[in-house]
Amino acid sequence: MRRTLQAIPLLILISMILFVIINKAPGGPLAPYLNNPHITPADIHRLEVNMGLIPPHGVPDWVWTIVRYFRWLGLVLHGDLGWSTSNAEPVATAILQRFPATIELMGASLFVALVLGLTFGIFSAVLPYSVWDYIITAFAFFGQSMPIFWFALMLQLGLAVHGLPLPGGYMIQLPSAGISSSDTFSFSDRIEHLILPTIALSFLSLALYSRFTRSSMLEVLSADYIRTAAAKGLPFRTILLKHGLKNALIPVVTIVAISLPSLIAGAVVTETIFAWPGMGRLFINALQQGDMALLMGYLCLVSVLVVFCNLLADVAYAWLDPRVKYD
Prior knowledge:
12 helices; 2 domains; globular; mainly alpha; MetI-like fold; 73% helix; 327 residues; 2% strand; two-stranded antiparallel sheet
């Protein structure tokens, strides 16, 4: 509860910085109208008055920016994030419509990255400096150095455009873009569309998690209490999973929490390449069209998610290691 309360001023400070940056960007809130040849200077002035952008006589601009920020914050606390000029709908509606698709993609990518990353890391730590360890290490370095936009395009070219031939004349050919083939929901069709963006988005995180799991597991497996458990005759699987993995996960939890912003940033690129109808693609469209209200709403939501995930990491520390106390 105390850490949750501490997150509130942090989020207010983040929103304040975002508000100033977005409103001081070229064009500001009127950016969508400035390139319209049918908009006259009189129309621009009327919009400035209606949107409250002109400070009263004698009020400095920086003071009026603070006043406008608190007006915006008051509306946000009542659930009003403003009006999206690029989608002609409330910002909250535009985000909520696309939020489930982004959560679906991020959830699948995080699940794949955690399961495979932990598995590869444990396997590599149990067999250090073996052939399998070198293969997994090479795979991890490949994943960490791979540009996500190039890798996503190669996945589309290899598994969607050309397809992957299999013995027996079979062919794996996955959908190249979109979230489904029709308006009718089909679980198998949704899974097929989810495979390629999930592989692209999880690849970097998978490599990162496997490296940190390997390093942490090697340190834990050399500890005295592991040797004591082995001397008492405990099965190796019990030693590895019950006594070793739980303690080795503490630094991995930190990396997962820190890497979530990278996962969100990667979702912007991935959703754009695969035409995934999520918030990342919405953000790119808003950025291209200068939709300041939508940009503000998206960035604030991402900030909330990042802070919330760090709070979950703090809770996970105490569960994994009883010695951690937040007193």
